[in-house]
């Protein structure tokens, strides 16, 4: 407030100085061919006019000028306070935004870790499923091979038996005698009882 009053008085004195310089710097136009007393008279009247003008300005212009300057001061103070409030709000918003960004970075890292973990679990599940399927397929192939092997073995055995029977039927009638036939019959009957 004191600083504003000093500035106001400085402006007032500057204005008064400019006006007095203007008034003192020229001679009155009516005094072109006047005598020696006229220049003194003109200077005295200029100073009287200046004092009257300064008095009128101070008496009637001081209050409106002071009110105007006080109003400007209050407006500037209000604007400065409003700007400071906006600055504080913006700082709060910046802090909040920074906090949200930090939280989103943390959430992003957590989400990334969770997705990687889920991917690894899914990968393990797929590998486990593939291993189970391969075991099942191998076991099934082994069973089929065993079945084919058993069938081939049985077929071979049956063919061997058929071949042996055919050979026996060809050779036995030639080599079995009636005596052998009787012995086999008795042996068979003893076993059956």
Furnish the topology, listing elements before pairings.
Blueprint: H1 2-25, H2 36-175, H3 178-192
Helix pairs in contact: 1-2
Notes on the protein architecture:
This protein has 193 residues and is an all-alpha fold. It has a domain of 94 residues. The protein is built from three helices and no strands. α1 crosses α2. The longest helix is centred in the middle third of the chain and has 140 residues. The N and C termini lie far apart (143 Å). The mean pLDDT is 83.
Ends apart, CA distance between termini? 143 Å
Secondary structure tally, helices = 3
Structural class: mainly alpha
Mean pLDDT over the full residue set = 83
Q: Give, in order, the helices and strands.
A: HHH
Largest sheet: none
Binned, the helix content reads over 70%
Per the principal axes of the C-alpha atoms, what is the gross shape? rod-shaped
Radius of gyration: 65 Å
- Count every beta strand, where a strand is a DSSP E run of 2 or more residues: 0
């Amino acid at each position: 407030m004191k600083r504003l009053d000093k500035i106001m008085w400085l402006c007032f004195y500057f204005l008064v100085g400019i006006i007095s310089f203007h008034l003192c710097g020229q001679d009155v136009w009516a005094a072109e061919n006047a005598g020696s007393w006229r220049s003194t008279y003109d200077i005295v009247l200029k100073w009287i006019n200046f004092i009257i003008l300064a008095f009128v300005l101070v008496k009637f212009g001081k209050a409106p000028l002071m009110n105007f300057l006080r109003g400007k001061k209050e407006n500037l103070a209000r604007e400065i306070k409003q700007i400071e409030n906006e600055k504080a709000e913006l700082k709060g918003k910046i802090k909040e935004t920074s906090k949200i960004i930090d939280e989103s970075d943390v959430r992003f890292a957590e989400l990334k870790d969770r997705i990687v973990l889920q991917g690894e679990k899914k990968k393990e599940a797929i590998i486990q499923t593939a291993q189970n399927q391969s075991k099942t397929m191998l076991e099934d192939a082994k069973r089929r091979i065993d079945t084919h092997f058993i069938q081939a073995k049985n077929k071979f055995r049956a063919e061997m038996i058929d071949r042996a029977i055919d050979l026996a039927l060809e050779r036995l009638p030639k080599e079995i005698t009636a005596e052998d036939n009787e012995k086999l019959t008795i042996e068979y009957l003893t076993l059956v009882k």
